[in-house]
Give the backbone structure.
Amino acid sequence: MTRIEHTVLIERPIEDVWAYLMDAENNPVWQAPVIEAHAEDGTDLAIGSTVQEVMQFLGRKVDVTWEVAELEPLRRSMVRTTSPVPMQGGYTLETVETGTRLTLDSEMDAHGFFKLAEPVFARMARREAVASCETLKDVLEAGAKDPAP
């Protein structure tokens, strides 16, 4: 089992950070491995919503479907996927004096090829989580607009 946790302070109100995170179509902007993403029903995410993503991993495109398992607006969200690697992960948001503290956490249960390469995979995933959080911070602090119409 690989566990990843990373926290970043974003100088934007919690409402802005939450709205940006809850629009799956923003994922390719701040998550480098994500090539495209869209919610199945095209509406706001809710418990049970599914999102299709195409990711680039080790030079290959990988289709991933994840489902929203937990949603506490402006506070916490969690998703689960079973393929290609069983994973659950989420965001926890907290208002702080200068904006929002965002903590990303995930757990992956590698199997097959991924189990053999788990130490390498875990290091890559940790680096990617840190880089993605820093990109998210840069995008939001540069003035990314609330995705809501």
Remarks:
- The two ends are 40 Å apart (CA to CA).
- Helices lie at 14-21, 27-30, 113-116, 118-141.
- The mean pLDDT is 88.
